[in-house]
Amino acid sequence: MGKASRYIGKWNSLSGYGKTTFLKSVFCLLWIKAGLSFLPFSTFRKFFHKLTSNQRINEYSQDQIDITVWAVDTAANLLPFELLCLPRALATKYLLRKAPSLTLEIGVEINPAKKFEAHAWIEKNGTIIMGNWPTSVSYQRLWVWD
Fold it and tell me: Which DSSP string do the residues of the chain spell out, in sequence order?
């Protein structure tokens, strides 16, 4: 079975919610990549804050969260340019922006033997839902992106 056949098979097995979430993930990653590439960071941050500031709250089921995380990761892996942890975390934060207790965390690796390495991840109620790392690595939280 070729790669295209696997993708078509996976697409056909997705629910309507999964297909919609995947397409939203693609567009979200594209505008985040463009925003991070072409706007000054402070401008992008203000723009992103306006888009994600929401007074409405929506509880997502664990399946909806899992599908969103899967869709963002899969779309990021399929798009023809590199999308590391920050764009993925931003896309997840945007797509789940109505979820309470969802934070985008940014930290640095604690390992004096290595050069500086930063990482972004998403937590819900203190549990990492996107951007998890191996147990052999430790990150020190520096900033919570509201």
Answer: --HHHHHHHHHHHS-HHHHHHHHHHHHHHHHHHHHHHHS-HHHHHHHHHHHH--S---PPPHHHHHHHHHHHHHHHHHSSS---HHHHHHHHHHHTTTSTTEEEEEEEE--TTS---EEEEEEETTEEEES---TT--EEEEEEE-
